Amino acid sequence: MGNLFAKHTGAKITDSDRAVLTLKTQRRKLTVERKRIEGVIEREVKVAKELIAQKKRERALLALKKKKLQEAQLDKLDAWLLNVEQMLANVESAARQSKLFSAMKQGHAALKELQKEVTVEDVEQLMEDTAEAKEYEDRVRQLLGESLSADEDAAALAELDAMEAEFLKAEIEEEMPAAPTHEVEAPIVEAAAQQEGVEALADPVEQLRQAANQREGRVLAVEEPIPA
Predict the structure, then answer these.
(1) pLDDT in tens, 43-54
(2) How far apart are CA 80 and CA 87, in angstroms?
């Protein structure tokens, strides 16, 4: 039946699988035997108590001796069970390590295959091809730039001049003050002129200049000869 199940699933039974199965079987058998011996010990104790109650001391002693033998056998079973548990743990740990090593080995093989597909020489060739393609593209752009006609060069220069003129005009307009948007009334202009005259008279230097001009005018009038 086990062979049919293995053939149906396609799984391969290894020696470690057989060892694990054997150890688990032995552990199960030892566990069953241990429970049987524990039952025997409990029964011998019960029989010894009954015999003591019946004043049958020798038979009670015999029952207790049997109990001691079963307890010694139970100690042996515990030691065997411990050994089986340790062996089972070791085998399972070794199986896990073997699977881990196999997985790492497969991963290393896959990595080597991938490295074969992309070699250092392939990468260097790719970089060289990319550099050549970029150089070719730059050369084509340069040739296209040099193939412009004289009219196209003149048009580009004229467009540059127009853009510079617009830029200078915008700067001048920003620096000039804004013109008034309404007319200034006449009384306001006259008042401003009178105020400027008052401020001019208030200046001492201007007053001295005007007095000197008046004296020069009177002297010229006195020195002028009277006509005959």
Answers:
(1) 989 988 888 888
(2) 11
